[in-house]
Structure formats: C-alpha cells, structure tokens
Amino acid sequence: FDCDAAVRTARLAAEMARATGVRGIRWIEADALVVEAQCTRLLGHSESAREVGRHALLLAEELGVAAVQLRALAVLGAIETDYHPVAARATLARRLALARKEHSREQIADTLCLQAQLQGWEDPASAQRSLAEALAIYRDMAAADSQAYVSGLLAELGIRRGDLAAARRHAEAAVSLRPTDRETQTLASNLTTLGTVLLLQGEVAAGKRRLSDAIALVQQFQGDAATAKYALAEGMIAVGESSAALELARSIPRVDQPADALILTLEAVALSQLGRGPEAIATVERAERAFGDSDTPRFAHRARVNLAGVKLRHAGAAVAARARRELSARASEAD
C-alpha cells in the first residue's frame, strides 16, 4: 500500500470537492481529509495527521455528516491514544456517544477497543469490561477478524495485569481464529503477544519461535515488523543474548520520536549488558532527547526505569545519585 500516493490522491479529491462550492458534495472533502489523516499517521507524521483529522472533524460537524464524524474521531482517537492520552479520553467519549446515538454497533465496538487500550494502563477493570462488550458485539456480527483483534487486546491486558495464564489463554484463542490475509497485521500482533507471554512464562524457545514467525509473516507482506522485532529483542535481553538483541534493535525502522526512544532504550540496555558503558550512556542521552515531553504511559514508565538502571550502572556518582532518585520515583508511580 503506497501511503504517499494515497495522501496525494486524497488531497486532490478534497480540493476538487471544495472547488465545487456545493454543500451536498463537500462531505467528500471531509471524507478525503480523513483518508489523508489516516495515511499521514501511517507514514509516521502523527502531529500532522492530527491537524488534518481535526480539520476533517470540523468540516463533518459543520455539514452534519455523522458517518464522516465517526471516521474522523476514530483517526484522532487512535493518534491521541498513542501520544496525547488526556485528549484521547475526551475524543473517544465523543465518538462512543455519537456511535451509540447512531446505533452503529461496529463503531461502538471499535471505540470500546480504543478506550480499553487507554484504560488498560490505569483502570484494568474498566478495560476488561470495554473489551468484553466489544467481543460480544463482534461475536454477534460473526466478525472473526475483529474477534481475533479483541482477543489479542485481552491477552495484552492480561500481561499488564500480571495474569499470564489469562494472557496465554486469550493469545492462543486469538491466534487460533486465523484472521484473513487482509488482516495479516492482526495475526502478526497476536503471534507477538503469544511469544511475549511464553517468554514471560520461561518458555524461551517457544516464545522466540512465535516472535520469529510474526517477523517473517509481516516481512512476507513487505512490512517492517517493528513490534515483533522489539518484543524479540526484549526477550533476547532477558535471557542474556545481548549481541543479537542489539543487532535486532538496530534493524528496527525509526518512525517518530517517542517510539524511537523505546528502541534506543533496548540498545542502551543491550550495550550495558555487553559492558560498553560509554556507548550505553550516550544512547541513554539520545533516548531521553527522543522522549521529549511525551506524557504517554505506553512510552514512559518501563523504558524510563531501564534508562535509569543503565545510568546507575555506568555513570559517575552525581548521575548515579539522580538515577537512584529516578528509580525511586518510578517505583512510587508504579504503586
């Protein structure tokens, strides 16, 4: 899928619809802006995508086209879930209210899934309820692909809650549903989650095999397999395969700053394990710059703990003292 070409086509469609000046046609402009926002996000330009999505939403609201409003809110919700969680809560609440008003069951379920990903960091019980409602809707619709997606989210939630038995049960169910070829990314994601669970349960060979399967599956369709590579590198670090983990982490494409910081964190930990202290500290500094002001739990907590740990091991006394304070603060946050 050529995202650059899709962005160009969407912009052309929006310009043509806008040029007509006909109100009954301008919904096409709003819909084209939604497509542009989706593709811009896939290209890694999240803030630009957010601005386009906001423009699409304002126009759809002005025109009173609920279907386009829902699609615009979906794009904004996905972007904000990753990078602006406070804003995401409001956006997703608006989308859920509109979806219920329009009796759009698929949109309701999709919004519940996005909300659950946000809730999973702070309110796992609410996340569980959201996913249970979404799964019930998709089962009633006989939507196997979507059921596989939700089961994968339930597995990820199990990992966060420390319930590895439930995580494994949901991950195995997700993989067994075998989504269609057009949902290859869902299957790869579920294989990644299952591999992660197996690693956490100490089944290293089986976990690495599942993660390698995920990477191969995505690469077969010319994807970058970043998520599976990240999980596999993390697993390699956990079992002391530091050189291989470092090589794998460095092969992951860089997309945007907060996500890049996570990859740099892996590199720093691997370098630390290899005894390459100066390189580890330099990588820590790059990771902290890449984090910037991100307030997203997805990027912040565990990675920052790892960075503090590397500094504690390799930095001078003053930096190590700050690192101890950071670790103490992160432990308090976790409580």
List keywords for this structure.
single chain; 335 residues; mainly alpha; 17 helices; 82% helix; globular; disordered C terminus
Secondary structure topology:
Elements: H1 3-20, H2 26-42, H3 46-63, H4 66-83, H5 85-101, H6 105-119, H7 124-140, H8 144-161, H9 164-176, H10 184-200, H11 204-220, H12 226-238, H13 242-250, H14 257-273, H15 277-291, H16 297-314, H17 317-334
Helix pairs in contact: 1-2, 2-3, 2-4, 3-4, 4-5, 4-6, 5-6, 6-7, 7-8, 8-9, 8-10, 9-10, 10-11, 10-12, 11-12, 12-13, 12-14, 13-14, 14-15, 14-16, 15-16, 16-17
Short description:
With 335 residues, this protein is mostly helical. Helix content is 82%, strand content 0%.
Largest β sheet strand count, sense and barrel closure = none
Q: Total strand count, please?
A: 0
H/E element sequence: HHHHHHHHHHHHHHHHH
Average predicted local confidence, pLDDT:
82
What share of residues is helical? over 70%
Poorly predicted regions: 330-335
| Shape label | globular
Radius of gyration: 21 Å
The share of residues in extended strands comes to under 5%
Please give the alpha-carbon distance between the first and last residues.
Answer: 43 Å
Summed up, the helix count is 17
Quickly give the structural class.
Answer: mainly alpha
Structure explained in plain terms:
The chain is 82% helix and 0% strand. It contains 17 helices and no strands. It has helices at residues 3-20, 26-42, 46-63, 66-83, 85-101, 105-119, 124-140, 144-161, 164-176, 184-200, 204-220, 226-238, 242-250, 257-273, 277-291, 297-314, 317-334. Helix 2 (26-42) runs antiparallel to helix 3, helix 2 runs parallel beside helix 4 and helix 3 runs antiparallel to helix 4. It starts with a helix and ends with a helix.
